[in-house]
């Protein structure tokens, strides 16, 4: 079966994301046991025009990003109980995978491909001039796909985080951004 027109054809997985029940223990595991880091913490994120299942939501969350080679590792900590993919049916996954992320150049085309594949947009919003949707392709927990169209007008945040991990000596395993 050809992959064109399927979600996998939109791009390669660039991120593995987790919503651990114990955020600090997850940071310690990834940095001390796995040797991945440093993680960069961004606190108090609320997407502009954020919708969960088509309805506005005021959900706020923190995230920490690091790189394991070319794969980004994201750890997410929900800050409240507003409807989101970080609570309820999609909530904390213990130490299991919550979602993967792919980067696209055209979020509208990605949305069309996902709709044709029967994937439901469960959360969407913008962060500056970046646009994001999370889709549930019907596979259950751990199979959400984040589709991100990054802003082209800002600094290369992912590049900076990746560069910090090259030859990282284990110091300052969790660093605050913003």
Automatic annotation (TrEMBL):
Question: Which GO biological-process labels does this protein carry?
Answer: L-methylmalonyl-CoA metabolic process
Note the InterPro entries from the entry: Glyas_Bleomycin-R_OHBP_Dase, MMCE/EMCE_epimerase, VOC_core
Q: Which UniProt keywords apply?
A: Dioxygenase, Metal-binding, Oxidoreductase
- Where the record annotates domain VOC, the positions are 12-150
Q: Offer an example of a GO molecular function term for this protein.
A: methylmalonyl-CoA epimerase activity
Cite the PANTHER family for this sequence: METHYLMALONYL-COA EPIMERASE, METHYLMALONYL-COA EPIMERASE, MITOCHONDRIAL
What is the protein's given name?
Glyoxalase/Bleomycin resistance protein/Dioxygenase superfamily protein
What is the scientific name of the source organism? Erythrobacter sanguineus
């Amino acid at each position: 079966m050809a992959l064109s027109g399927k979600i996998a054809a939109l791009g390669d997985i660039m991120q593995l994301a987790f919503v651990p029940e114990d955020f600090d223990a997850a940071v310690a595991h990834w940095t001390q046991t796995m040797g991945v880091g440093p993680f960069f913490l961004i606190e108090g994120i609320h997407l502009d025009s954020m919708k969960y299942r088509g309805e506005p939501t005021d959900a706020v969350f923190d995230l920490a990003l690091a790189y394991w080679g070319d794969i980004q590792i994201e750890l997410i900590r929900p800050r409240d109980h507003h409807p989101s993919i970080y609570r309820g049916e999609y909530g904390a996954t213990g130490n299991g995978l919550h979602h993967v992320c792919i980067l696209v150049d055209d979020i509208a085309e990605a949305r069309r491909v996902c709709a044709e594949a029967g994937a439901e947009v469960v959360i969407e919003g913008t962060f500056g001039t970046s646009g994001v949707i999370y889709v549930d392709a019907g596979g259950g927990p751990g199979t959400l796909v984040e589709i991100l169209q990054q802003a082209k007008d800002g600094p290369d945040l992912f590049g900076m985080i990746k560069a910090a991990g090259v030859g990282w000596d284990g110091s300052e395993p969790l660093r605050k951004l913003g």
